[in-house]
Amino acid sequence: MATLRSLASDLGLSITTVSRALDGYEDVAAATRERVNKAAAAAGYRPNSTARRLRKGSSETVALVMPTEPGRFYEPVFVDLLSVLGERLAARHFDLMLLAARPGAEELAVYKRMIKDRRADACIIVRTRRHDERIAMLQEAGLPFVCHGRTETRAEYAYVDGDGEAGFREVTNRIVSLGHRRIAHLAAPDHFTFAELRSRGWHMAMRAAGLTDDLKLMCASTEEAGEQAATALLAGPDKPTALICATDRIAIGAVRAAQAAGLVVGRDIAVTGHDNIHASRFTHPAITTMELDVRSVGACLADKLLHLVERGMPEHAGDVFPLRQVLRASSGEAN
Amino acid sequence: MATLRSLASDLGLSITTVSRALDGYEDVAAATRERVNKAAAAAGYRPNSTARRLRKGSSETVALVMPTEPGRFYEPVFVDLLSVLGERLAARHFDLMLLAARPGAEELAVYKRMIKDRRADACIIVRTRRHDERIAMLQEAGLPFVCHGRTETRAEYAYVDGDGEAGFREVTNRIVSLGHRRIAHLAAPDHFTFAELRSRGWHMAMRAAGLTDDLKLMCASTEEAGEQAATALLAGPDKPTALICATDRIAIGAVRAAQAAGLVVGRDIAVTGHDNIHASRFTHPAITTMELDVRSVGACLADKLLHLVERGMPEHAGDVFPLRQVLRASSGEAN
DNA sequence: GATCATATCCAAAACGTTTTGGGGAAACGC
DNA sequence: GCGTTTCCCCAAAACGTTTTGGATATGATC
To answer: Which of A39, A63, B45, B253 is the most buried (most CB within 10 A)?
Structure first.
């Protein structure tokens, strides 16, 4: 393994000069720099990252604590996000470190350990909650972070999010314009900010249309929970003719519940979701949904993170991305 | 931040003694050890991992190169795998580093870089292929690795896999015993070992039953590709009455194709998959499939990896896990 | 009392890099 | 010829740990 030392002795130069030549400093003669670069390339020299990290006092690593079941991230989104993040960070020589933690007390312990160990220069918070202890913890520790999703705090923090509120206002407005009046909302657990924002979009559109916004049920973001919740709503006195679901997984369950109740989805009842997961295209009928451009979000996340580590809080600390509406048969808006 | 130096000077001891006390060496007096441990705990001392890594010459890190689209890992499996791996490795103070790479030339470049940079002590290979350049590359480089899935090589290597061959033999046998005769196979791309093994299971069961095993079509592991392939098969002269699909995503597409052809899935035609992804339970009808216990596989993977790093090739280099068959309506075996 | 084993501790080297604070020689200004 | 600047280079320190190879003191043995 070639080191600075071996290169230096081969070239009859000092370690300092070799190091500075490779880093492109101006105080080494152009000819020498050239010679050093040639030799380094020939020897396949790559600086020892551990040594550099020790000396520079930074870990060149970004950590992401991923929640495991239950409360897990939506799969296609999560994996795409990891891909983009990995690529973008690698381009700047940052490693992406993955930590796993079950939601709850254990999760905070993982963050604490990460902070103490200083194994990462920054971290990414996913599944941000409305009241999120992680934010204060990281701010206090002085560890830079970017949130995927928002939280309710007065403090300034960096985040990237999809505009769930606008998205749900839009879909609700469309459903209203199709003639629906009893439009229910199947919400995700309201400690998640995304759930609250999506709910708010629905609430606002309903009120703006002069409709009652009390047909709302909260459930976990799973097909089973969605099916159960939808079944309950459809058995109630105020049977809705439309179900605006917080996520596609809930919507898939809702479609099934509606069919079990003898309804033709897309004709007797409209169902919509959010995420545009693969499965939503292949249910029968296909599910109307909306989607975020994950690659943009991931790239934005990575850029903010790098900015934060290298130059402090970016000018645009928070970015909200629009959602693309995907009209399909489950709401009677396609086929 | 507490360091060995600060602890040592606070305690009036040498750095050596503090270090050795914390590591539990016998050559430090029990009373001193006690005193040191107390002080370290009080100061919240945690050793600087970068310094330790530099000194010990190991990175305490395991890398996983994840393929991005196309050819991506099945989502629920992948995320679960990451969770288990992260937990198991963290328990032994190993970090899990994630690298992203598009399949193809770029992928090998990522592996090369990882090897040269020595940022990881070992790595995990996923989506193992029948002829996999990565194996030879890593063996030559002397970087320990464990495969998720098998490859075709004479060399000894560590792997963990599901028994796709037995699983597909079993499902094919069941379908035969239901009275089907023209049983087609929708295979995944045959450069993946898993695809080859699943195919083989189907082939063997068909021949054992004295049936022709030429109704086979290969397609990507997506719903779209599955739909297209199934459509082609159903339009052919030798219309199959059963479709054994390599993956659930293919099966979901196949179900849709069958329905488009006017068939009632589960009655006129049997369809089966593999993976037991969430969506497979919520199609209409639900899809018969099989599943691997991902937590066991992940734990086994992590254990093998640690064994490899700390003690060399484990006794059982390769482990194959059985698949659990999940009978549902799409094959007429439930409801 | 000398010798030896044992128990306890420590100084210094090493891991490979980056950075500080010059140092020597050539070129330049007068 | 002398001082000053410019150009190129380098020795040494530093990052925080682990490990090597003793050193010192104490007690036991004869």
So the answer is: B253
Residue contacts between A and B (CB atoms, under 8 Å): 134
> What residue of A is the nearest CA neighbor of B68?
A83
pLDDT, mean of residues A24-43: 95
- Distance from residue B119 (CA) to nucleotide C21 (C1'), in Å? 33
Pick from B96, B100, B256: which is nearest to A87 by CB?
A: B100
Residue A218, CA distances (Å) to A53, A73, A192, A225, A233 in order: 47, 18, 12, 9, 11
Single-letter code of the amino acid located at A236: G
The CA R_g of chain A, rounded to the nearest whole Å, is: 26
The b/e string for A214-242 (b: 16+ C-beta within 10 A; e otherwise) is: ebbbebbbbbbbbbbbbbebbeeeeebbb
Cβ within 8 Å, pair B59-A50: yes
Report whether pLDDT(A71) > 70. Answer: no
Cβ contact (<8 Å) for A82 and B66?
A: yes
Within a 13 Å sphere around the CA of A12, how many CA atoms are in the beta-carbon half?
A: 2
Tell the residue number behind the tokens 């049936």, with chain if given: B211
- Which domains does chain A show, CATH number per domain? 4-47 (1.10.260), 61-162+294-322 (3.40.50.2300), 164-292+325-331 (3.40.50.2300)
Buried b (16+ CB within 10 A) or exposed e, B291-320: bbebeebbbbbbbbbbbbbeeeebeeeebe
Could you report the per-residue pLDDT of B307-323, keeping only the tens digit for each? 999 888 888 899 999 99
Closest CA to A317 of A307, A327, A325, A326: A307
**CA/C1' separation A3–C27 (Å):** 36
The minimum CA-CA distance between A208 and chain B, rounded to whole Å, is: 35
Confidence of residue A110 (pLDDT cuts 50, 70, 90): very high
**pLDDT tens-digit series, residues A91-106:** 999 999 999 998 888 8
Q: Is the pLDDT of residue B61 over 60?
A: yes
For strand B324-326 and strand B289-291, is the pairing parallel, antiparallel, or unpaired?
antiparallel
**Nearest residue on chain B to A86, judged by CA atoms?**
B100
Q: Which residue of A has its CA nearest to B73?
A: A79
SS3 B30: helix
A132-167 burial, b for 16+ CB within 10 Å, e for fewer?
Answer: bebbeebeeeebbbbbbbbbeeeeebbbbbbbbbbb
State the nucleotide closest to B20 in CA–C1' terms: D18
Question: Which positions in strand C are less than 7 Å from the protein's CB atoms?
Answer: 7-22
Distance from CA of B212 to the nearest CA of A (A): 31
pLDDT at B28 over 70: yes
B44 to A283: CB separation less than 8 angstroms, yes or no: no
pLDDT value at residue B74 = 65
Q: What type of residue sits at position B246?
A: A
The answer on pLDDT for A73 being more than 70 is: no
